[in-house]
Design brief:
- With 677 residues, the chain is of the alpha+beta class.
- Strands 10-8-7-11-9-12-15-16-17 form a nine-stranded mixed sheet, sandwiched between helices.
């Protein structure tokens, strides 16, 4: 940390001085429990103006978290009232040992008008200050400088961005390897690019859509459409946009992206709605350009990500939130009996410099399914966040307040926004990876995002799939979102039936996760099977275009099919928690001979909630055994046809219901070929 480390117990308000002079009881609270802090209300809303903080550093840090409450960036439980209308807020102060290392959490639990209850946020308390020992190795990752100005658009921010790019190009060897072009792509360029033309007339700078650009650096833009975009490439606007128009006629996000690229020395920008023909009947151009997305983002010099913008009119830059003083750690000398004495850094749990960019991305831009592959493939990204700029490349994660990195994205972890290494880096590295599980992580993160068109479910992942094909075995075949080398295992994806639906239009065969709209879990993809109980002996895909959309397909498996019934079990305590969702599994499988037995170990997880399948005869196809459990597919017979099925879910059961040699499962069913469509 490059900030001034000599300032210990800086200027604090009387309330905070009193707080630091107290001690905590056995339950972790300060007696007499309550402190009245600085916030006041106006028109029923809590407000805090920097002058009202009287220069108190600790109050400024608390304000960071309170700001997220009062602006709706974090949720208050609907059963509790917001902050009271009386001046000030009572906080009950608690000290708690953090789950992270030697850190502590100072929790300020708000109480309104003496009514019991905590102002609930997604983390459980009104606001939290993290106390990080100065000796902790992560203390060096705290911000080194305060944010400058009241906007993310300022000269220092621009200079930091230029420095990030220059250093990455000059000294990041891993990033240089990633930027290296593949054989045959040495001179490849996108079909179209947006060029900036400096203007000298009254109209100012111009832009034009150009084709056939010779090898030159270009930037890419990731953005939310947020409705119709007034200026886009169509047959009717093609000639006008090629001739050139004032840049002022573009939406604000596009203007700022093009001008920002110019300021870092890049005169060309790739923007989807200006570089792909957007007419509804222009499918041929759209399909051709979609097939090049991997190269568009891989070979772009930098990706400009409009992280905080919900539509094209909001621009890249933002007014900063809160008091800049709260962005810096406050160094305190603490002498409490319930924690080791010494120097600590006090930092807000939701700091403006951290601002939890992972959450911002999930809330806005990166909820877009298409953006997932854009960020996965780009060699460098600048995220234009609510409070500051963030940098991400293969070598460095940084922020304006921590420009040398690593940026503290949340106070407890330092991680990539996607939690995934670059696909190209994985291909270039010597590390061994569980590719089945790695692809499962990609599918989980991708399916947690939204698509405007259901039919884009596969095509919006096609660029990542085409890049992943270079990692998997050369003999591997991509089958509607799954890979042939791990196909039996990959068939065991799991849906969330309470929220997911089968696509209303044909997107993929029922055995593919792409046939479901909504998040998918791939827990079993990480498991190494003890024994395969069924094998794929044939696979057919119709209409697949370069890892993209399909019009049909079927799988033929050799295995044991057994009749069963799915019954509702309202007393089930089985829960699956994943990606902030908790799903109660209230369906069990009942086999004919198990009517008098305990079937609690036989669990059915339906793809969608279809009441017509409850207590209806279905078929179980066991796929693999692992850790004394059997996992398989739930199938429904199609039109009474012998051997033709569609998938309706997955199951697992205790392996006592499946014994490999002459077991009761084998005795009660026939081995044969099963075709799933």
């Amino acid at each position: 940390m490059a900030a001034d480390d000599t300032l210990v117990n800086p200027a604090l308000c009387d309330e905070c001085k009193n707080l630091l002079s107290q001690d905590f009881d056995a339950r972790g609270y300060i007696y007499p429990y309550f402190f009245r802090f600085w916030p006041t209300t106006r028109d029923g809303q809590v407000v805090f103006d920097p002058p009202g903080l009287n220069g108190c550093h600790l109050c400024a840090i608390i304000a960071v978290d309170v700001f997220e409450l009062t602006t709706g960036r974090r949720m208050i439980s609907p059963r509790l009232k917001p902050f009271p209308s009386t001046p000030g807020v009572n906080f009950r102060v608690k000290l708690k040992k953090s789950v992270v290392g030697a850190w502590y959490e100072l929790r300020f639990e708000g109480e309104a008008d003496d009514e019991e209850g905590t102002f609930q946020t997604r983390w459980g308390t009104a606001c939290t200050v993290a106390l990080i020992p100065a000796s902790d190795r992560l203390a060096a990752r705290l911000p080194a400088m305060a944010l400058e100005g009241n906007s993310t658009k300022n000269q220092r921010s621009l200079g930091i961005m230029q420095s990030w790019l220059q250093r990455c190009r000059d000294i990041h060897s891993a990033c240089q390897d990633l930027s290296a072009r593949d054989n045959g792509k040495e001179s490849w360029m996108p079909t179209r690019l947006v060029e900036l033309i400096p203007g000298f007339g009254p109209e100012g700078d111009l832009f034009r859509v150009c084709e056939g650009v010779s090898l030159a650096p270009y930037a890419t833009l990731s953005h939310c459409w947020g409705g119709d975009i007034p200026t886009k490439l169509q047959r009717g606007t093609y000639d006008v946009l090629r001739a050139g128009k004032p840049i002022s006629t573009l939406p604000k996000t596009f203007q700022e992206a093009i001008m920002t690229a110019k300021k870092i020395g890049i005169w060309y920008t790739w923007i989807d709605c200006l570089c792909i023909i957007q007419d509804s009947d222009a499918d041929e151009d759209w399909v051709a350009e979609a097939a090049t997305m991997a190269d568009v983002y891989r070979y772009g010099t930098i990706n400009l990500s409009a992280t905080a913008s919900e539509n094209s009119s909001q621009g890249l830059y933002r007014l900063r939130n809160g008091n800049p003083q709260g962005t810096m750690p406050c160094k305190l000398d603490l002498r409490w009996s319930c924690a080791p004495h010494g120097l600590y850094y006090a930092v807000a749990k939701a700091m403006p410099y951290g601002d939890d960019p992972a959450r911002e991305l999930m809330d806005k831009l990166s909820k877009r399914g298409w953006v997932f592959q854009e960020h996965m493939l780009a060699p460098r990204i600048v995220h234009f966040s609510e409070n500051q700029l963030f940098w991400q490349c293969q070598t460095l994660e940084a922020s304006e307040s921590c420009p040398s990195g690593p940026a503290l994205t949340t106070y407890w972890t330092v991680t990539r926004f996607t939690n995934l290494p670059s696909l190209r880096y994985l291909r270039l590295s010597a590390e061994t990876q569980d590719l089945c599980g790695y692809w499962g992580t990609i599918v989980e993160q991708y399916t947690d995002r939204n698509l405007t068109r259901e039919t884009d479910r596969l095509i919006a992942l096609s660029a990542i799939a085409s890049e992943a094909a270079k990692i998997f075995s050369p003999s591997d075949t991509y089958l509607a979102g799954l890979w042939s080398s791990y196909l039996e295992q990959m068939l065991l994806w799991q849906s969330f039936p309470g929220s997911n639906q089968r696509s209303s239009v044909y997107v993929a065969p029922t055995w593919s996760w792409a046939s479901i709209t909504g998040p998918i879990r791939t827990y079993w993809w990480w498991k190494r099977p003890d024994e395969l109980l069924a094998r794929v002996v044939g696979a057919t895909i119709e209409g697949q275009v370069r890892f993209g959309s399909v019009s049909g397909g079927n799988l033929t498996l050799q295995g044991y099919v057994r009749k069963a019934h799915v019954v509702e079990d309202r007393n089930s305590d089985a829960l699956v928690a994943w990606s902030r969702r908790t799903v109660r599994l209230d369906h069990s499988i009942m086999f004919e001979e198990s009517l008098e037995r305990d079937t609690s170990g036989n669990l059915a997880i339906m793809d969608v909630l279809d009441r017509s399948l409850i207590s209806f005869q279905i078929y179980c196809l066991p796929i693999l055994q692992a850790r004394r459990s059997t996992f398989g597919l739930l199938l429904e017979r199609v039109g009474g046809s012998e051997g033709l099925y569609r998938r309706v879910g997955v199951f697992y059961c205790d392996s006592r219901f499946f014994i490999s040699e002459k077991g009761e499962w084998v005795d009660r069913c026939c081995e044969g070929e099963v075709v799933i469509i």
